Amino acid sequence: MDRRPQFFEELLIEIKDTGPSCSYVRAVHDYLKGTDGTFACFDHLNACRCLMRLCVKDEACASEVFESDEICEYIRQGLCEREDVVRCKNILYVMINAMQCATDYVKTYRIVGVIVMDPHFKDLPRTVPAVRPVLAKLIALSMRSVEPVKKQGHYGVDYGVGVPGRQLVNSYGFVQHFFGALLLWTREWTLEEEDEARADVECIVERVVDLEWFPTMFRNLHEKEESNARRKEVLLREYLFSECGGDATACFAKVEKMVPVSFCDAQSTLLHFLGILSVKARRFDGKTVNDKHPYVLPESVLAFLLDTTREAAKACKKYAKNDDAGFAERNVLRECLFTLRSISEIESTPHFPDTVGFLAGTGLARLLAGMIIALDPPSGSRQSMKAKGPAKAEEIPKFPIDDQAFGVQNFVRDNFPTVKPYNGYRVDIIATLANASHRRPRVCEDVRKLGGVAVVLSHTRGEEGDDGAMDGCEEEPFLREWALWGTRNLCEADDAIRKEIEVLAPDKILEAEELMKRGLKAELNPETGKPRVVSIEKSSKVEMETVSALGGGPMATRATKKVRRVETQKNEDDRKEVREEEEFQIPKNWKVAEL
Fold first, then answer.
1. Which pTM was predicted?
2. What is the spatial distance between Cα 160 and Cα 147, in angstroms, rounded to a whole number?
3. What is the DSSP string of 92-116?
4. pLDDT per residue as tens digits for the range 296-305
């Protein structure tokens, strides 16, 4: 065989003139075989160009290229040369060309099984940042093969070589290092690579979701998942045969407390892509994802999403008082609620599978109601607590929790934070709950049974968000509007909710300093039950002392004279006329009643 340095240069010219041929593949194979694995003096640029052209749209040539052990070894060594970025990128393009036309066996067993699953390959996104877009394209193509591939073995026995995507997702090391680095890289995209790279990463996530591998990938992204899983298994086995006496539920609860759930940034990024995927137009335009999964996401992924939301909320409860810790947990919770809110905004179509309806059947209302009830009432309904003097109101108690309705003792107290983990937390919950209640009687009934009607109503006062807010968070934009939308949907679908709201009425009127300075007071109209402002007709000793304490001077003197003048009126018509003359218009920013 000719060992001239210009061998690949001449071969490339022949391939350009005559096209790909298996004879050229064998020539490359024989040339590499005679080198004894030393490729230091090779013309790597033209060698990669030859292989790229041999793998373009020719199944026989592409398959033969990767069935050659010598060529595969040359490719593997090229990927290990991290300093030679051009060579590394060109070899990846050779693999991309082959993944588009080679046989399923070659793609599965030779390319993915031998090269991609090589321990050195998983570090490429971290060590060679320049090839990340090419890697995303390669893995997106690798995910396309979904059926196990079989090859004839010895004695005529068929053996399966597995699904490429499943091999990658099930490998903890590959997911942790390769997919984790690839997902974190998406946060650093430049304008040039964003469009194409986003499409490839979304393609990977979509394939993982549709094949129901999402929970596995999500768990394997955490650096401690493997060790935590082994520790849980050992502890559970010990408790089952010792302390808990075989009670699996008690043992599992005890193990969960000893090995708490934690999250990482790569997991929150993966959830962000899940949220984007869930509202892709073509996933709910009258067609199902596939025959097995009629919803916008597979049922197992939807159930996993609800469970992850609860676990993230529980993790945030632990970090509620520490802003520096729990950053990843808060991001995971935010992305979970973002995905649920995005799904809830999809308009349901009659006679078509309802994704929100499925979520409602698996505990969506219970989850959201528990999360919002665990918080204090919104600061917008607590403004009277900041007043001074007679206008100061009593502290509004926390929302009552019905453990029996939630089905588990201390379900709300143990799982959900009592302080907002991030700004917009209330809006995400109320908006999702309001959308889910739209023309879904079952959701409305669940909200009513869990005591959520009064909670939604309390949020119609909005969130003031000033520096004096009790929870220390900034404002919640459009919280009042979402609460009104939720109230409307609840009332439309459930008669019991309408009756529950109808019986609500003002209990009493809180004293206001501005009114008393003018010799006026607020009271409930006994005929209509609505608040009104009238003159102080019969001032008690406390009222007179209050008027005097509010400032003396002309205002207090005028108020005292006004009281005395009203008291001397004996004719009912004259008293009515005086009231009409001295009627005071309530400014819009005054609070005269508390529901």
1. 0.78
2. 10
3. HHHHHHHHTTS-HHIIIIIIIIIII
4. 899 999 999 9
